Amino acid sequence: MQTLDSLNRLDTVREGSGGLVADYDYHDLDFYSTLAYPNGLTTRTDYDTLGRTTLVSSTVAGYAYGYDAAGNRTYMQRLHRPGQPADVYQYDALYQLTQVWYGADSTDPGSIIAYDHLQWYDLDSLGNRLEVQNDGASQVYLPNDGQQLTDPMNRYETVGSSAFTYDLRGNTLSDGGNTYTYDVLNRQTGMTGPGGDAEYLYDARGRRVAKVVDGVTTHYVYDTQYRVIEERDEGGALLARYTYGSGMDEPLTMERGGQTYYYHRDALGSITEVTDASGALVERYEYDVYGAATIYDGSGITLTASAIGNPYLFTARRYDPESGNYYYRARMYSPPLGRFLSQDPLGFDAGDYNLYRYAFNNPTNLTDPSGQIVPLIAIPLIIGGGALIVDWGAQVYRNVECRGMSFWDAVHYENLNIREMAAVGVGAGAGTIAGMTVPALLPAATTFWGAVGVGTVSGSVGGGVGRITTNVILPDTAWQEGVPQAMFWGGVTGGILGGAGYGVKQWLAGRQAAMGASGRESNPYQIRYDPKSPGRPDPRWSIDTRTFSSGETTARDGIRNSIEFWKEWLKRSPEALSAANRYRIEELGLSPRIDSTWVKYFPEHANFLREVLIHHHVNQGPFAIPVPASTHIGSGGIWHTR
Fold it and tell me: Which residue segment(s) compose the domain that 445 sits in?
């Protein structure tokens, strides 16, 4: 039972008998500042002026957080551990996580001397992994013959030495350890692996209502918010009972085996501690960035599994120990892969062009509680809704000023063109999505007009779809009525917002480039000059383009030809190119991307991991050097002053 305060905020959570489960107090920002349990423990949460969590603390744990200018978390510091070690994060220009120091002695990457583990992620243009490095040990996401990473649907074919297989709908059938089965709705129905054999059953609403592991059946009872409130055995006997706060994944207590346990969470929502009725620490949980858990008992001894049967771990989702995966409602999630085992049921409507990717590869800031959508998709939805509201206002104004209607007549739905509003709203949302994703969809389209073009096409298609949809829904209308006009205005709106979305993203990337993420690397805008010939770029790290066979000429005798530049670079300095980048140049005719191999030779590019490299003609002359694409925005960029 929940009670609300005078501002309609959650005040207390009580058992059916009236016993207190949790008591909330609030910050001025309407985020709760304290959560008090009847076992005597109170968790305090602090925020900065932008509403971002900076501290989560109680008597059993403390976590501090920092952020960059774009709002991404740069570290999580464990204040309760000796030395207060921190997990420190770095991102690429698309805010995908690329590097993690675990257990670092500083929250500033430039000051880190000691750490427990260092992890790198090399990603392709669609967010698939190319390589993961753990303390120098490499796991390659490339087939053994060195061909491209995945098939066109972003499915891994091999990871290390493990082969993957899929069904015709893109569901993972085997991952080198487990094998899986699915029903016609792409829900995982079975699993066989080293952890046991399991069967999963669902109700008509898609909820997993039972699982059978090695012959032992557990039934799940849900509330109206798709949260498990009870577990029962095959005979109906109660195994566990749960209570929740206001969030979709905010468990407060678990009753199991005659004991009541209390959940404690970090800023991401992951369960970090469980305490008992006396306030004593029972279990503690630590995670890597993609959710692989390490479990400790109250004394700090490492456990192979929860001794109290706690199922809630990373982002407070249910963990299946038999498979090593998490149940994210619509589909299963693999922590080692950092992705889902099935494609998003919403398809591309979920806002990601990679249907397997988890939280846009930003697991330190975003979550995906339904397995279908993350909060980032609210951006195009809000913009699309805003465009719809603007069109509504324009129609109301037209009705009042041009048609002489009263206000109430002007806003009546019979006097409004619903189809027009739908077309404009859908077109604007589609154009915004295109503008935000065009750098990854079309790495070569690094100009404003390239984004406008993609936004226009997407907006036009979106406008047409919106108009057709409303034509079909509303009676007495041919499906094609008004579609050309809707496509036109959807294209106009989508083009404008597509360019704006791309511009904002590039501005943020430029800001990140200008400020730098760590200060550890040198200036990314520096030019390596030849010590023997002042004013001339170092011949080892530059290309004389006057020998190119074709291309546009620069003001001072240079020739612009990206393909020839990188093929010449491959001959001159192959050591700076990884196998994946050599394949991009030789076989695909594409520019390379900044990865860990490249950073060994160009440490000043470490803050731009996964970005496309382009070539810049120094002083518009014949000698060209490689630079990150986001540092070369427009003819007025910093590079064009040198």
Answer: 376-515
